Amino acid sequence: MKGINNKWYIICIFLMFGIGLQNIKAQKLKIFRGVIVDRDTLAHIPLNNIYIIGFKDGTSEREKRRKTKLVKNILKVYPYARTAAELLEKYDKMLVGLPEKEQKALMKQAEKNLRKQYINDIERMTFTQGVLLLKLVDRETGKTTYYIVDELRGSFQAFFYQSIARLFKYNLKDNYDPNGKDKEIEHIVRLIEEGQIN
């Protein structure tokens, strides 16, 4: 009697194991690292970063309006910064190996095309949106606006635009600082990139 029970026990285990394997094959198999805590093995599962935009209790209405406006402005200008980064990469590749005269002609034509396509949108931006756009272009390209203008249009144009920016208390040579003064902007941009804000 005891031998029969053991056989059924073994057969049941094999059947369950076989059914379990079929279920595993039907599902995606995920393997995680294990961590042993107090003689217990736990799966170590990496999670995506979570960014939260919210207001603490007691946040003033003024601060809420400021932050809401910042999100709205970034949503408006971020696509332009992405486009600028893509176009800059495209033109950088086109300029490689061209003689200086052809480079200048190409950049003048590119500027003409860009003005035609984007000038109305850019002219409708507020000063704050313009500053955000410059910061985000630096974020996306890794180059300050001053450097980009100097590289593509020359030192005189870069100096000219820098002089105008300084009248409005902005410096085209400022680097985007995601861990410092631009931390709040970085936080919002990451939310946009992860599809949590749109």
Task: Describe the secondary structure blueprint for this structure.
Blueprint lengths: L1 H25 L6 E5 L2 E5 L16 H35 L4 H24 L3 H15 L3 H9 L1 H13 L15 H11 L5
Antiparallel strand pairs: 1-2
Helix pairs in contact: 2-4, 2-7, 5-6
Could you name the ranges where pLDDT drops below 50 across 5 or more consecutive residues? none
Radius of gyration: 28 Å
The termini sit apart by: 69 Å
Main beta sheet strand tally, sense and closure: 2 strands, antiparallel
Class from helix and strand fractions: mainly alpha
Q: What labels would you give this structure?
A:
2 domains, single chain, 7 helices, 2 strands, 198 residues
What does this structure look like?
- The protein is mainly α and 198 residues long.
- It folds into two domains: 2-44, no CATH class; 63-193, no CATH class.
- 67% of the residues lie in helices and 5% in strands.
- It is built from seven helices and two strands; from the N terminus they run αββαααααα.
- The chain has a two-stranded antiparallel sheet with strand order 1-2.
- Helix 2 (61-95) packs across helix 7 (183-193) and helix 5 (145-153) runs antiparallel to helix 6.
- The longest helix has 35 residues, at 61-95.
- The model has no long low-confidence stretch (mean pLDDT 78).
